[in-house]
Amino acid sequence: MLPLHPALLSQPDYLFSQIAAAAEEERKRHPHRRVISLGIGDVTQPIAPVAASALRTAAAELATQKGQKGYGPAAGYPFLREAIAAQYADLPCPIPPEEVTVTAGSKEALGALFSLWEPGVPVWVCDPVYPAYRAQAEAAGHPVFSLPCRVENDFLPQPEEAAKPGLIVLCTPNNPTGAALSLVEMTEWVNWANRTGSLLLVDTAYAAFLSGEELPRSIYAVPGAKRCAIEVGSFSKSDGFTGVRCGWVILPRETGCAAAWQRWLGSHSNGTSYPIQRAAEAALSPTGLRQRQKALALYRQNAATMLQMFHKLGLTCAARRPGCLAPYLWVRCPDGPDAQNSWAWFHRLLEGCGVLCAPGAGFGQMGEGWLRFTAFSRPEDTAEALRRMEHFLR
Ligand code: PLP
What we know:
Elements: H1 6-9, H2 15-29, E1 36-37, H3 49-62, H4 78-86, E2 100-103, H5 106-113, E3 123-127, H6 132-139, E4 144-148, E5 167-171, H7 183-196, E6 199-203, E7 229-234, H8 236-239, E8 247-250, H9 258-268, H10 274-283, H11 286-312, E9 328-332, H12 342-353, E10 355-356, E11 358-359, E12 370-374, H13 379-393
Parallel strand pairs: 1-10, 3-4, 3-5, 5-6, 6-7
Antiparallel strand pairs: 2-8, 7-8, 9-12, 11-12
Bound molecules: pyridoxal-5'-phosphate.
């Protein structure tokens, strides 16, 4: 057998694959008890009717000679690049459509972006955070360092912890903690990056869960961000597109990386499917933006119900800033033996009451002692999971 890439061999199995495997084992052990998932952050509400309708119309168009399409532009069709750019139009750093790339999701986009820089360029990631960043950066040959996010600093990364310039990955609001950067904190990061020659890679997968001016939905709310920031966005959580697959990258010319990105796209991508891009365009239309609110409100309500119950059970939850209703609750493991062992608590909840969560340690060393619960489940499942947990933990 040919030797496999050492970066892949040294990595643990992907967190959510481990969680799914544990749930499957539990199902086999107790076939009559349904496992309720508050573990993997997948959506449960349908896509907006206007997006579904656009998808159907585009598929029908492809079945006609006039509407037939071959390969699309690698960076996306102009109609969607324009619709995405329009979302940034009122910010201090407006984004022209040429700086938008449509992708098949943000995970794919992030993986691609890490390969733009020379192997060895340091990458700084929050700890705890979405585990794909570390795996992808290591696979692209970058040494990865942690920006510790602790209770004492409201789980927010601090520029002074990044000991040397490099690529800094920020996720706001953060998965798994729900911590969101304020305009002041974003400005500090932008100033720091411009001063040190670092680049910020900002993941806004959950930005739709932010409201108000205080917690910006984009790094381009900060003047000067175009010199030092690349942003990745996604329709997955805001529009129920986890299985539809569409996201985007904003890569400003001022970062100096645009030519490398074009070269990468040319050799690696044949674009995203036409009907999906039409559906994404519809999701950003005034009707789509209105229709998405139904699912978002339901997830926010789930989060509020969960928070209330966790408090009732005496569990400590990470505080969230007003204006941030991120769909994750970051909860300290209950006191007692194993209070510092999130995998033990993960298994205890799964085996004891059939509730699936995500162990904090899977998001980084600093996540140990914490559990993540998602608010993306159906309300009736959320209620049932909370009932089971109440019974089990009391
Ligand atoms: N970024 C973060 C922070 C996530 O939590 C996820 C998925 O859970 C993604 C990106 C991937 O999203 P997408 O479905 O757009 O690939």
